[in-house]
Design brief:
The chain has 500 residues and is an alpha+beta fold. It has 16 helices and 17 strands. The strands form 6 sheets. Strands 3, 4, 5, 6, 9, 14 and 15 form a 7-stranded antiparallel beta sheet that branches. Strands 1-2 form a two-stranded antiparallel ribbon. Helix 13 packs antiparallel against helix 14. The longest helix has 22 residues. The chain starts with a strand and ends in a 13-residue tail after the last helix.
Length: 500
């Protein structure tokens, strides 16, 4: 097996042995697929939200351990930074009143967590990037005290061989060098899971990739980092640069970044797992005791531990997930596109839009990915991140010609995609009243041209015009955002600026 090295409580196995284990995992996955051993989907969806902790002054609070101790619930967990938490909602069947059920569970859980956080002078803020975060907040000393995070930090920096450089040019330009992966912790997201059969996986993943840009255009909520106004959704460029293990010479050679949109439509789930193994060196080469092929030979179901761990260090915006639950393997598409917030209503509206649209697109007889090139889908994603709700996107025209044309994202959504999302939710069996309410939130964002990012930027500029300096304006914007977030009305209804 080779010598093992102890690091942060983990055994780092010989990398050559680890690569062999990864290949055996891929072979085991192929056998599972050939033998049709996968669990039949039960129309299950899952939801996770990453959160921030801030004080009444709007500034970040590095105290997730204290807050989690008071919350004392397995639904809440640590995240990368000490100012982060994550809440996990138990899987639900996509049918009936599921949207309102999710909304009620989130309001109850987040309200309880916020009350507990206030006991130690902190508040829960659901936002893509906390505007008041500064360089002194995003340092290795503020990573959560979890061995895996420390090890991941060490491995990324060792692979890179130099500091992490951030260079993001948007409304303003940010240049910053970091000695840790801590800037990654600034990114807080919503993760949407959907269990699918192996033969439907490619269609669902391709559909999710095609709509990623639309999700961002509608839901952008991260316009600031380190006091700079950047892209309307600054998480993707920040995350890509903060997790980049490539030194400059490898970037110049076209080596793929660990956070990426992808490069092609797929035909099967194996395409993604095989790409992950082929293109990306292991960051956490930790070997389990089980041999996956032997487990199969003995009639068991392998956990594919090495493949699952490696997959978790390749940050696709739509990630394949393999898991064994109740003795049966299953596959999920994990959608990681959306930022957190602004409100529970907004999160559930984004959720409804995604699940409805993916269902409709995956079942189209002439799928969108047969008419839209992957390069165009990737360019759409970039445009949506940069411009948010004002983005212009390329999309196939309705009808037989299928020619691709550029149009405003709001028009595309209102005229074409919202009706498709409604049809998709009908196919899931979602209650029509819930369907109409939550998709109506998306329609109103389009009609008013307002989402979380546009509201933050406009409110910040009004604070500057009112005489506040930049730091005070960002803090005031964050406090106002937090107050309106807790009020619960969707962001398109929020008043701009500050009360007189």
């Amino acid at each position: 097996m080779g010598e093992k090295v102890e690091a942060g409580g983990f055994d780092l196995s010989d990398r050559q042995h680890y690569r062999r284990k990864l290949q055996r995992c891929l072979q085991a996955l192929d056998r599972l697929l050939e033998e049709r051993r996968f669990d039949r989907p039960k129309n299950l969806m899952g939801l996770e939200i990453e959160l921030n902790l801030a004080g009444a002054d709007g500034m970040p609070r590095m105290m997730n351990a204290e807050v989690l101790e008071r919350i004392s619930s397995g639904d809440f967990q640590t995240e990368l930074g000490q100012f982060n938490l994550e809440v996990n909602i138990v899987p639900h069947r996509l049918s009936g009143r599921v949207l309102d059920q999710l909304a009620e569970e989130l309001r109850t859980g987040l309200g309880y967590a916020d009350r507990k956080a206030r006991e130690v002078s902190a508040e829960i803020v659901m936002i893509g990037i906390l505007p008041t975060l500064g360089p002194d907040d995003l340092v290795s000393g503020n990573l959560s005290e979890v061995d895996r995070y420390m090890l991941l930090n060490d491995q990324i920096l060792a692979a890179r061989g130099e500091e992490i450089d951030l260079d993001i040019e948007g409304v303003e330009r940010l240049r910053y060098s970091s000695r840790s992966i801590a800037p990654e912790a600034a990114c807080t997201s919503v993760q949407l899971h959907l269990q699918v059969t192996p033969n439907r996986f490619a269609a669902v993943w391709n559909a999710a990739q095609a709509v990623a840009a639309v999700q961002i255009a509608m839901g952008a909520n991260s316009p600031f980092l380190f006091g700079h106004e950047l892209w309307r959704e600054s998480r993707p460029p920040l995350f890509q640069q903060a997790t980049d293990t490539r030194p400059p010479e490898l970037r110049a050679q076209g080596v793929r970044p660990r956070t990426w949109f992808g490069e092609r439509w797929i035909d099967s789930v194996q395409d993604l797992f095989e790409e992950n193994v082929r293109y990306f060196p292991s960051l956490l080469p930790i070997c389990g005791e089980d041999d996956p092929l032997r487990v199969l030979d003995e009639g068991g179901i392998p956990k594919l531990q090495e493949l699952v761990l490696h997959n978790g260090t390749v940050y696709r915006w739509n990630r394949p997930v393999y898991e064994v639950a109740d003795g049966a393997p299953h596959l999920r598409v994990e959608n990681r596109v959306l930022p957190a917030g602004p409100t529970v209503t907004d999160v559930i509206a984004n959720t409804a839009f995604y699940y409805g649209l993916v269902r409709a697109l995956a079942e189209e007889p002439r799928p969108v990915w047969s008419r839209l090139s992957f390069e165009e889908a990737s360019a759409n994603f970039d445009a949506a991140c940069r411009h948010g709700i004002e983005a212009r996107l390329r999309w196939p025209r309705p009808g037989r010609s299928g020619t691709v044309a550029e149009q405003p994202a709001v028009r595309l959504v209102r005229e074409e995609l919202l009706p498709m999302a409604a049809a998709g939710l009908d196919s899931w069996g979602v209650e029509p009243a819930d369907r109409d309410f939550y998709l109506g939130v998306i329609e109103e964002r389009c009609r008013r041209g307002v989402n979380g990012a546009s509201w933050q930027a406009e409110t910040f500029h009004r604070a500057l015009e009112g005489g506040l300096d930049r730091e005070a304006a960002l803090a005031a914007t964050t406090r106002r955002y937090g107050a309106l977030m807790r009020g619960g009305d969707p962001v398109h209804t929020w008043p701009l600026g500050f009360p007189g």
